[in-house]
Each structure stands twice: as structure tokens, then as C-alpha cells.
Design a protein that fits this description.
Layout: H1 3-17, H2 20-27, H3 31-40, H4 53-61, H5 66-73, H6 77-85, E1 88-89, E2 93-95, E3 100-103, E4 108-111, H7 135-143, H8 151-158, H9 162-172, H10 181-192, H11 205-215, H12 220-230, H13 241-249, H14 260-263, E5 289-290, H15 296-299, E6 306-313, E7 320-326, E8 332-336, H16 344-356, E9 365-368, H17 377-384, E10 388-390, H18 400-409, H19 424-436, H20 447-454
Parallel strand pairs: 5-10, 6-9, 9-10
Antiparallel strand pairs: 1-2, 2-3, 3-4, 6-7, 7-8
Helix pairs in contact: 1-2, 2-3, 4-5, 7-10, 8-9, 12-13, 16-17
Length: 455
């Protein structure tokens, strides 16, 4: 096929599909060649909606998380985030709903019309967030003061504080006492964009000082705290902890490239994401019943038979002991685990055996943290009939009785020792010692006396 015939075939297909990329892919033509042919023919390619966009947005409307929706729709996570935020991809950058165009070839941010990458003087961007003033709100702010309205009266119908209205007027009122809402909106959008070079990407004494301290293995927080003491009269020698982290993780190709491998004690070259509770993935395959769903009778310790549990770990986490504490009597039971075996199945079997030694009315519930040893909690409930409630992450106080008891047990099982050296008889002896101790919280009764009354 000749060059002219191939070009003609491409232009015909482009008229049908409307996308240079799709037409070039189907014909096996380089995309840039396709764009060149389209421009020479005076054809402007129209955008084709991603086939999975509608499906992704529908899944989000149904309540699925971003991660679940992108996996089910088969799209990239960033595509999902862009669709939700109204961001549109271009050939060499991204269009934002507020009118910004980030050009990835130059690294600059411009205010543009949404159907072009050419800056337009009259393009007025919309607000990117309800937290920020919109153009319609600024138009009301421009009209109402002339009607004699106070700042507070202007802010009430807008749902804005009087201080917000005052700052807006102070910032964007001209020397001729003139407030133009379109100009104010455009200036506000331009001030939000940050095309300037990052603080630590610029050569200078601040970057040199930070780099030298990182070489001394100081943390970003330590560097941020010591700079004002070393340079009390130089305001330019100030940098926040987050700015240093950004320079290491995000801008390492510029400012601190040579220091990135040894800058942080963790040795990570990429930032570790920390998800919120809403975004956090399920801990176990079987759904957990959280402590917030635990009945009130368990919370106030009014009804006996509800237990708190955990593992105390030995040296290098290679050995462990199961600990159970009854919430109302503080009665302790200890479960022996073979050396090096504290898998979910092993812990489940030990807990089932411990619960089997109790009468039915003392097998009410079990509260545990979200450790991996409780991954078999569903099969434990089926075998023992005891429901399991899980504490929130990093909340040991929600198992206060068990945490306190684990501290007492360290008198007999010190940290850093091999706990597998203690057999079942040793554990029973230690448990009896604790259960015979009088407790102030029990009116100086012992846990064994309280439990005997219940039995």
C-alpha cells in the first residue's frame, strides 16, 4: 500500500471513529503520524469517552470504594480519581475544572479555555471546592454592599462567615474602591496554582544546610526544628517537615537526588501511603464485628462471661502464650502454644479448648485486637459458639483488662525470652497465682472467689 493510500485510509477511518489514537491503533500507524495527517487535512479529532468511565461512575454511585470500583471496572486508579474530580487528560497535560491547564512538557500552569490549550484572557475558572468562593458568590458579594448590607448579612445567605467576606473584599478591591467579581475569581485561581520552583529545588544555603543534616542521618522533623536555632535572624532559613519529605519523595529528581538513598532511616525511596479508616481494606476475609457493635451489657461489665484476649510474644516473636481475662471478675486463663506456632489455626484450636472448660453461661463473647492470629475467628465462633468483637486499630485501651493482665504476666514471662520453655503446667501455676491475688477493683476479693460465686 502506498503512502497516499495509507493516509487516505487513515482519514476515512478517522471520520468514522473520531479519534486519532483509535484510528492509528487500528491501522498500525504511529499516533504522531496520525495527528500530522489529521492537521494537514484540517480535521480536528473529537474526544471519545472511555468505555469504562460510565461503569466506574455507576459503581461509585452504588457506594463502592475507589479501589473496588477501579478493580471491577478495569481502569487505572488515577483515571478514576480524575473522572470524579472533573479532570480531563490532554495530549501533553491535564485540564482542571477551575480552568487550569498543567503543561507537562514545560511544567507550567496556565488558565485556559476547557476546549483549548491556549491561554484565554477572559477564561473565568469555576471553584474547585465548596470550601472556596464560586463566581456566583463573588457576584453577590459585589452587588450587596452597595445595597447597604453588612458583612454578616452578606455572608448569611451564602453560608459564609463575615470574616470570609471581609478578606475577599480586602484582597480584591482596587485602589478606585472597585470590586470586580470576574477579575477577583481569576486572580484567586491564579494564586492557587503553584508553578514556581519548590523551595528545596533551588540552589542556596537552605538546600545545602538540609542536605548536610540529612547526610548526618537527622530526621526531617529534627532539621525543621533546629534551623531556627542555628539561624535565628535569617527568615529564609526556615523549612517545614513536610517540605523536606516532599523534596525527598516527590522532587528527588531535582533538589535532593543524591541524598535520597540514605536520607531517611527507613531507607524507603517512595512514600508509604496511610489510608483513613474509611479507605482501609478489610483485615480478614471473613467480615469482622467491631467493638462499636458490642452490646451495652458487655461494655458496663454488668453481665459476667465476656472475655478479652491477646497474645504475649517471646523473643523475636518466635513464641507466644494465649491470654484470656474475664471482664467482670478479672479471672485469667492461659493457653499453651507450641514453639514457633501461633498461626490462626493453632490459636483457634487453643481458644476452643479453653472455652470448652467453662460452663455455658460464662461463654458470652470474646474481644480481641486485629492481629493476624484471629484470621480464623469465624470458624472459632462456629466451633465454640462464642462471638468475637474486634477493637479499632491502635486502640489497646479497648481491651484494658487484658492489657493490664499482660503487664502483670511479664513478671513471670519477661520480654525477650523464649516462652515455649513454659509448658501447660507452668502456665496453669502462673494463672492460679494471679487468680488468687486480691484486687482493689474487686473490693479486695480475688478473681477466683468472684468466679466461684458465679459457678
Amino acid at each position: 500500500m502506498s503512502f497516499a493510500e495509507r493516509k487516505k485510509q487513515f482519514l476515512t477511518l478517522l471520520a468514522e471513529v473520531g479519534s486519532v489514537t483509535v484510528a492509528a491503533r487500528q491501522l498500525g500507524v504511529n499516533r504522531n503520524t496520525g495527528y500530522s495527517w489529521a492537521r494537514s487535512a484540517g480535521i480536528k479529532s473529537t474526544r471519545i469517552e472511555h468505555p469504562s468511565k460510565a461503569e466506574y461512575l455507576k459503581l461509585r454511585d452504588l457506594g463502592l470504594t475507589q479501589r473496588a470500583a477501579v478493580e471491577q471496572a478495569g481502569v487505572h486508579p488515577r483515571s478514576g480519581r480524575d473522572w470524579e474530580r472533573g479532570i480531563r487528560r490532554a495530549q501533553n497535560g491535564r485540564h482542571y475544572p477551575d480552568g487550569r491547564f498543567v503543561d507537562y512538557t514545560t511544567g507550567q500552569t496556565k488558565i485556559v479555555a476547557m476546549d483549548s490549550t491556549v491561554p484565554v484572557a477572559g477564561a473565568v475558572p469555576e471553584a474547585v471546592s465548596p470550601r472556596l468562593l464560586s463566581l456566583s458568590e463573588r457576584e453577590q458579594i459585589a452587588d450587596l454592599p452597595w445595597a447597604g448590607w453588612s458583612l454578616r448579612a452578606i455572608g448569611e445567605p451564602l453560608g459564609r462567615a463575615a470574616s470570609t467576606i471581609k478578606r475577599e473584599l480586602d484582597a480584591h478591591t482596587s485602589d478606585q474602591d472597585l470590586y470586580l467579581p470576574s477579575v477577583a475569581h481569576r486572580r484567586s485561581a491564579l494564586s492557587r496554582s503553584r508553578p514556581k520552583t519548590a523551595k528545596l529545588a533551588r540552589p542556596g544555603p537552605l538546600r545545602d544546610a538540609v542536605a548536610s543534616m540529612l547526610a548526618e542521618e537527622w530526621s526531617p522533623e529534627q532539621i525543621s526544628g533546629i534551623l531556627p536555632r542555628q539561624f535565628p535572624d535569617d527568615e529564609a532559613m526556615r523549612v517545614s517537615t513536610e517540605t523536606i519529605y516532599q523534596a525527598i519523595y516527590v522532587q528527588a529528581r531535582g533538589g535532593l537526588k543524591r541524598e535520597i538513598q540514605s536520607a531517611l532511616r527507613t531507607g524507603r525511596t517512595r512514600r508509604k501511603p496511610h489510608r483513613s479508616v474509611v479507605q482501609r481494606q478489610p483485615r480478614f476475609k471473613d467480615p469482622m464485628i467491631m467493638i462499636s457493635d458490642r452490646p451495652a451489657e458487655i461494655e458496663d461489665r454488668a453481665v459476667p462471661g465476656h472475655w478479652e484476649g491477646d497474645l504475649i510474644m517471646g523473643a523475636a516473636n518466635k513464641s507466644a502464650i494465649v491470654t484470656l481475662v474475664e471482664r467482670s471478675t478479672r479471672y485469667v486463663m492461659l493457653g499453651h502454644l507450641p514453639a514457633g506456632e501461633h498461626t490462626a489455626e493453632t490459636v483457634r484450636d487453643v481458644l476452643v479448648d479453653l472455652m470448652a472448660t467453662l460452663p455455658g453461661h460464662l461463654r458470652g463473647s470474646l474481644t480481641w485486637d486485629q492481629g493476624s492470629e484471629m484470621a480464623a475467628h469465624k470458624s472459632f465462633k462456629i466451633s465454640s459458639g462464642v462471638p468475637v468483637y474486634f477493637c479499632d486499630p491502635a486502640s489497646p485501651w479497648q481491651r484494658g483488662s487484658n492489657e493490664n493482665t499482660n503487664g502483670l504476666l511479664r513478671q513471670y514471662f519477661p520480654k525477650g525470652t523464649d516462652l515455649s520453655a513454659h509448658g501447660p503446667l507452668d502456665l496453669e501455676m502462673v494463672a492460679q497465682k494471679l487468680n488468687r491475688r486480691p484486687r482493689k477493683t474487686l473490693g479486695w476479693d480475688s478473681p477466683a472467689e468472684r468466679l466461684l460465686e458465679l459457678i
